[in-house]
Specification:
Helix content is about 70%, strand content about 0%. It is globular and about 65 Å long. Helix 6 runs parallel beside helix 12, helix 6 packs across helix 20 and helix 14 runs antiparallel to helix 26. It is an all-alpha fold. The protein has a single domain, classed as Sodium/glucose cotransporter, CATH 1.20.1730.
C-alpha cells in the first residue's frame, strides 16, 4: 500500500507541474502570474469552491469529531449550506466591485471602500493566519497519516517536506492560474475517491457499519441525538459536558465558523478573479451546498462508524480487503490537506506580495521583477509552512484554531461593501476589534497566554457549548449596529454611496417585490432555526416518536439523521433560490461601467506608500 500511495501522491505532483509549465509557456504577460490573467474559467471556480468548502474546514478533523461524537458532530455539515448562503450573498457584489471600481484584491476592496489602512492590515493578517499555522496544521495531519499507514517506512517529517515540495512547484512555476486549476481538479478527484471508498466499505466489508450499529462513541456521549439546546458549561477544559458539546447552539455556532472559509481572503480572491457566468451559482449551489454538504451529512457517518477516529487503523482494515481502495482512502485524506494548503499558502503568498510588498515595499519594479518577487514569497511561505508542520505541530494547531472564527468576523465589513451602505469605517473597525478579542479569549491561544501569564479564567474553550465564532460575531454585529447609528452620515459616506448607487442603478437584486423578499428571508430564517438553530433539537425524536401518535415509529434509521438529510436538501434549494431566481449567483460583463473611488486619504495616490510604512522601512534600511 505504501508504494501505491507514494505513486498517487507523486502523480498529483506531476499533474501540478504539467499544468504550471503549460501555462508558463503560453507567453502571457508577467502580471498574469498574480491574477491568472482574469478570468479563471467557470469550471475551475465551481470545483474549487466545492473543494475548498469541504477541505478548508479540515476534513480529517470533521471525520475525527464524527467518530468521537456521532451524528451530533456530523450535523455541523449543514453548516456548509450556511457557508454557501454567505458566498451567494457576497460573491456577486464583490465580483462587480472588482470590475466597477478596479479593486485588485479583497484587501484593496475593503481598504479603499472604507478608506482604512487598518482593513488592509486585517486582511493581510488573515492571509498569514490561513497561509501559515492553519495550513501547517493540515499539512502536519496529512504527514502523520502517511507515516502511520507506512508503519514508519516514511517518517512524518519526510512526508511533510515531500508534500510541501510537490505543492510548491506548480505555485512557483505558474502562479495563480495553475493553482486554481489544480485545486479544482484535485477537488473533483477527492470527491470521487471518497464516495467510492465509502461505498466499497459498506458493500464489501463483512463487519456491521453505521446502519447496523451506529457510531460507537464513548460512554455518556449521545451518538444519535443533540444533547439539548445549550449546556450551562464553563467550556472545554473547565467542565465535562454531559452528552457531548454539540448542542443546538453548538451546531449553530460551529456552522458559522465553517462559513469563515467563504470570507477568507483567498476564497474571496478566487471569486474576484473568476469569469462572468453561472460559475458562482453552480459552485455554491450544487457543489458546495449540494455535494460538499451532502458528503458530510450522508457519507461522513458511514466513514466515522468504521474509522472510529483512527483513519490509519481503517486504512489497514481496507488493505486486508483491497490494497487499491486502502491507498485511495489515505490519498483522499492527503488530497484534502493538499487542496487547502495549496490554496491558502500558494494563493496567500501571491496576495501578500500583491497587497503589501509590490505597492509599498518595492514600488516601481518591472513586471518581470514583480513576478520574481512573487516567486520568492511563495518559496518563503512553503518553507515556513513545512517547517511549522514538521517541527512545531502543536503551536501550529493552537494558532490554527483562530483562523475560521476570526475570518467570519469579516462578515459585517463585507456585508457593508455588498449591501449596507450605512455601515461605517469606525463601526467595522470597532466591531472587528471587539469580536476578535472575544474569539481570542475563547480559543486556546488566548486561554494559554492569559492563564500562563496572569491567572486562570473562569471559562474554557467555547463556554455554554457555543463556538467562539458566534461569541465574537454577536459582539461584532452589536458594535457595528450601535456605532453606525452615530457615524453613518460621516464624510466617508460619499465614497461608499458611489459604489452602492452603481449597484442600485445597474445591478439590482430581484427578490420578486415586497412579498417575494419577505418570503425568501422568512423561509431562510425558519430553515436556519429548524436546521441548525434551537429547533434542531426536535430532530432527536421527530421521526422516531412522532408527536401526532402515541407509539414509536419503526423507522430503522436515527431520527436526527433523517432530519439532517431533510434540511440539507431544503437548504440546497434555498441557496438555489437566492442564486438563480434572485440573480445573486449570475455575473455578467454586460453594462459594466468603471468608476474611480476616492482614495482613503485625500490627495494620496492609491499606490503611494503610507508614512508609517515608509518610516519603518527606512529604519531597517538605515541600519
Amino acid at each position: 500500500m505504501t508504494a501505491l500511495l507514494a505513486s498517487l501522491i507523486a502523480f498529483s505532483g506531476v499533474l501540478g507541474i504539467y499544468l504550471a509549465t503549460r501555462f508558463a509557456r503560453a507567453g502571457l504577460p508577467h502580471a498574469v502570474f498574480f491574477d491568472g490573467g482574469r478570468p479563471i474559467p467557470s469550471w475551475a471556480l465551481m470545483f474549487a469552491l466545492g473543494g475548498l468548502m469541504l477541505t478548508g474546514t479540515g476534513f480529517s478533523e470533521q471525520l475525527d469529531l464524527a467518530g468521537r461524537y456521532g451524528l451530533q458532530a456530523s450535523h455541523a455539515g449543514i453548516g456548509l449550506v450556511v457557508a454557501a448562503l454567505v458566498g451567494i450573498l457576497l460573491g456577486k457584489r464583490l465580483w462587480l466591485a472588482a470590475r466597477i471600481a478596479g479593486f485588485s484584491s479583497p484587501g484593496d476592496a475593503l481598504g479603499t471602500y472604507y478608506g482604512s489602512v487598518t482593513m488592509r492590515l486585517v486582511m493581510l493578517g488573515m492571509v498569514m493566519l490561513f497561509g501559515l499555522p492553519f495550513a501547517a496544521d493540515l499539512l502536519s495531519d496529512a504527514g502523520r497519516i502517511v507515516a502511520g499507514v507506512s508503519d514508519g517506512g516514511i517518517s512524518r517529517a519526510v512526508a511533510v517536506w515531500a508534500l510541501a515540495f510537490f505543492l510548491f512547484l506548480p505555485a512557483v512555476i505558474g502562479g495563480w492560474r495553475p493553482v486554481a486549476f489544480l485545486i479544482a481538479i484535485e477537488s473533483a478527484v477527492f470527491a470521487v475517491i471518497l464516495l467510492a471508498v465509502t461505498l466499497f466499505g459498506e458493500t464489501v466489508s463483512g463487519s456491521p457499519g453505521f446502519l447496523a450499529k451506529g457510531i460507537a462513541t464513548a460512554p455518556g456521549i449521545l451518538h444519535d441525538a443533540l444533547p439539548g439546546v445549550v449546556q450551562y458549561s464553563a467550556g472545554i477544559g473547565k467542565d465535562v459536558v454531559p452528552g457531548g458539546f454539540f448542542t443546538a447552539l453548538g451546531v449553530l455556532s460551529r456552522s458559522l465558523s465553517l462559513a469563515g472559509v467563504v470570507t477568507s481572503p483567498v476564497v474571496l480572491y478566487l471569486v474576484m478573479t473568476a469569469r462572468a457566468g453561472k460559475g458562482l451559482s453552480f459552485g455554491m449551489t450544487w457543489l458546495s451546498a449540494g455535494l460538499a454538504a451532502g458528503i458530510l451529512v450522508l457519507a461522513l457517518p458511514f466513514l466515522a462508524a468504521r474509522t472510529l477516529s483512527d483513519p490509519v487503523a481503517h486504512a489497514h482494515q481496507l488493505a486486508a480487503l483491497d490494497t487499491a481502495f486502502a491507498a485511495g482512502f489515505v490519498f483522499a485524506l492527503v488530497l484534502s490537506a493538499q487542496i487547502a494548503v495549496l490554496a491558502f499558502t500558494g494563493g496567500g503568498a501571491l496576495l501578500f506580495t500583491r497587497e503589501l510588498v509590490l505597492p509599498y515595499m518595492l514600488p516601481g519594479m518591472t513586471e518581470a521583477g514583480n513576478r520574481f518577487a512573487g516567486r520568492i514569497a511563495i518559496a518563503i511561505a512553503f518553507l515556513a509552512v513545512a517547517f511549522l508542520a514538521a517541527f512545531a505541530p502543536l503551536p501550529s494547531a493552537i494558532l490554527a484554531s483562530l483562523a475560521l472564527p476570526l475570518s467570519i468576523q469579516l462578515f459585517p465589513a463585507l456585508l457593508g461593501l455588498a449591501f449596507v451602505r450605512w455601515i461605517s469605517r469606525s463601526a467595522v473597525i470597532i466591531g472587528l476589534i471587539l469580536g476578535g478579542l472575544f474569539v481570542f479569549f475563547t480559543e486556546p491561544p488566548g486561554l494559554v497566554l492569559f492563564e500562563g501569564l496572569f491567572l486562570d479564567l473562569p471559562w474554557g474553550r467555547w463556554p455554554l457549548t457555543i463556538h467562539s465564532a458566534l461569541w465574537g460575531l454577536v459582539l461584532n454585529l452589536s458594535a457595528v449596529l450601535l456605532v453606525s447609528i452615530f457615524t453613518r452620515k460621516g464624510e466617508e459616506r460619499t465614497r461608499r454611496d458611489r459604489l452602492h448607487d452603481e449597484f442600485a442603478a445597474r445591478w439590482p437584486t430581484d427578490f420578486g417585490g415586497k412579498a417575494g423578499r419577505g418570503a425568501k428571508w422568512s423561509l431562510t430564517l425558519i430553515w436556519a432555526f429548524l436546521a441548525i438553530g434551537p429547533g434542531a433539537i426536535l430532530g432527536n425524536t421527530f421521526f422516531s416518536q412522532p408527536i401526532f401518535t402515541d407509539g414509536d415509529a419503526a423507522l430503522g434509521l436515527p431520527s436526527l439523521w433523517v432530519w439532517q438529510i431533510l434540511f440539507w436538501l431544503l437548504g440546497a434549494f434555498l441557496v438555489w433560490w437566492l442564486a438563480e431566481p434572485a440573480g445573486l449567483g449570475r455575473t455578467s460583463e454586460d453594462g459594466l461601467r468603471a468608476i474611480r473611488p476616492e482614495h482613503p486619504d485625500a490627495g494620496q495616490d492609491r499606490n503611494e506608500v503610507p508614512a508609517w510604512i515608509a518610516s519603518s522601512i527606512a529604519r531597517v534600511v538605515e541600519r
